[in-house]
Structures are given as C-alpha cells and as structure tokens.
C-alpha cells in the first residue's frame, strides 16, 4: 500500500494511504497521486479535477490535513 502525508514544509512523506486520499477526492487517479509531491500540487490537482476556486481547494486540503489521525 502506498502512503502519503505532509511534513511542516508541505512535502509529502510516508504515512497516509493514497486510497484514503482517493476516498476523499475520488476524481484523483492513482496516477495523479503518484505525481503529487507537495501540498501545493495536491491543492492544484484538486482545484483542476473539481473545478474549484483555489481558495476552496486549499481550504479542503487543509481541513483534510488537520483531520489526520496520528
């Protein structure tokens, strides 16, 4: 299983299942997730796939990040 999460700099590191992310944002393919390396890239991809304003996408990603279970 592949994992994804963020450190304080916004870079991705092991810790969160990609399937969990895909459950949150089902329009993101595993190929999309494999290319995402930073929080900003995740925000941009969510914005693009869902047609959201950047502020809404950023808020959704931040809420998801804060809702993480350690």
Structure keywords:
70 residues, alpha+beta, Protein Yjbj, Chain: A, two-stranded antiparallel sheet, 54% helix, globular
Provide a descriptive summary of the structure in words:
This protein has four helices and two strands. It is of the alpha+beta class and 70 residues long. The protein has one domain: Protein Yjbj, Chain: A. The chain has a two-stranded antiparallel ribbon.
Please summarize what this structure is.
Helix content is 54%, strand content 14%. With 70 residues, the protein is an alpha+beta fold.
Strand/helix succession: EEHHHH
CATH architecture annotation name? Orthogonal Bundle
Largest β-sheet summary: 2 strands, antiparallel
Q: How are the strands ordered across the major sheet?
A: 1-2
CATH class: Mainly Alpha
Distance between the termini: 17 Å
Low-pLDDT regions = none
Shape type: globular
Number of helical elements: 4
* CA radius of gyration: 11 Å
Percent helix, as a range, is 40-55%
CATH fold group: Protein Yjbj, Chain: A
Compute the number of structural domains. Answer: 1
Sheet/helix structural class: alpha+beta
Q: What fraction strand?
A: 5-15%
Quantity of strands, as a count: 2
Whole-number mean pLDDT: 79
């Amino acid at each position: 299983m592949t994992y994804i999460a963020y450190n304080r700099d916004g870079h991705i590191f092991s810790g969160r299942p990609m399937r969990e992310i895909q459950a949150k944002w089902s329009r993101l393919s595993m190929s999309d997730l494999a290319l995402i390396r930073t929080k900003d890239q995740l925000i941009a991809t969510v914005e693009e796939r869902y047609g959201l304003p950047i502020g809404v996408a950023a808020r959704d990603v931040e809420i998801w990040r804060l809702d993480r279970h350690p």
